Amino acid sequence: MKLGVFVSDYQSTVNTLERLKSDQLGIFLVQNGVYHAAIAENGKGSAILDAAPRVFALREDLETRGFAADAVDARVKVVGYGDIVDLIFSEYPKLAWL
Amino acid sequence: MAKLTIGCFSSLVGSMSLDFAVKLAEAAIEKGHEVDFWMSGNATMLSKKGQKSFKDYSYLDKRIRAAMDKGMKMCACEACAEARGYHKEDTFDHPGLIRKSMDWYLASCHTADRVLHIGGE
Fold it and tell me: Does residue B14 contact residue B45 with C-beta atoms inside 8 Å?
C-alpha cells in the first residue's frame, strides 16, 4: 500500500514515520513542516528527508516563510496545491496527517 | 472525476490547518473532483455567519462560498457547534452547507476515493 503522510510541524516525527507500514511512503511537507525542507542544523538536513523515497514541499508555505524553491534540499520536490491533488489521486490511496 | 473527503477537526478560523484544507479543496474542485468538507470541533466556526475580513488575518468565508458554488459540500458537526453556543440560526445560508452528526462524515468517507483526516490536538 502506498501511503502519503502530511507533516505540518517542525518537530522530529521520524519515529512515527518509521512505525508506519507502507510499501511506498511519500511525505508532504506543509505549513511549518516545510522547515524540514529548507533548514540544515549543524550542516545536516532534517532526518525526515531520509524517511521516505519521495518528499514534497508546498511552494506557497515555503514562500510564506521566506524560502525560495531553490533554497530547499535537493531531495525535496517543490509542488503546488494542484500537484498535491494529482499526487494523492494518482499515487497515494491512503493519507495520514501528522 | 474522483471524490476527496476532508475532515478538519481542530482548527479555529485563521489557523494554518483550516487554510490548508480549504486551499486543497479549491485545487481539487478546480481539477474537476468532488469534495466533501467536514468541520468538527473548533473548525465548525468556519460555517458561522457574520465573519468579517481583517488585514493580515485569514478570511475564508468568500472562498468557501465560491467553492460551494462550484459543488463542494460542507457539513458542520451539529453537536460541536451547539457545544460552542453556535446555533442553527448562526449558520450562514448556502445550499451547500448543512449541520449534521458525524454519521455524515463517516458516510462520506465510505464513498470517497481519498480521505484526508486532519486531526485535532
Answer: no
CATH of domain B3-113: 3.40.1260.10
Whether the predicted model's global pTM rises above the 0.80 cut: yes
**What residues of A are in contact with residue B28 (Cβ under 8 Å)?**
85
Hey, are the CB atoms on B23 and A97 less than 8 Å from each other?
A: no
Give, for all 121 residues of chain B, the pLDDT tens digit.
899 999 988 666 667 888 999 999 999 999 999 999 999 998 999 999 998 888 878 889 999 999 999 999 999 999 999 999 999 999 999 999 999 999 999 999 999 999 999 986 5
- Kindly list the domain boundaries of chain A, sorted by start residue: 2-97
Contact A81 B116 (CB under 8 A): no
Q: How many CB pairs under 8 A join A and B?
A: 47
For residue A24, give every residue at least 6 positions away whose Cβ sits within 8 Å of its Cβ, in sequence order, or none. Answer: A2, A3, A53, A54
> Can you read off the three cell numbers belonging to residue B59?
478570511
Taken in order B79, B81, B86, B88, the sign of the CA dihedral is negative
**Residue A32 near chain B (CB below 8 Å):** yes
CATH of domain A2-97: 3.40.1260.10
Q: Given B23, B114, B115, which is nearest A81 (Cβ)?
A: B23
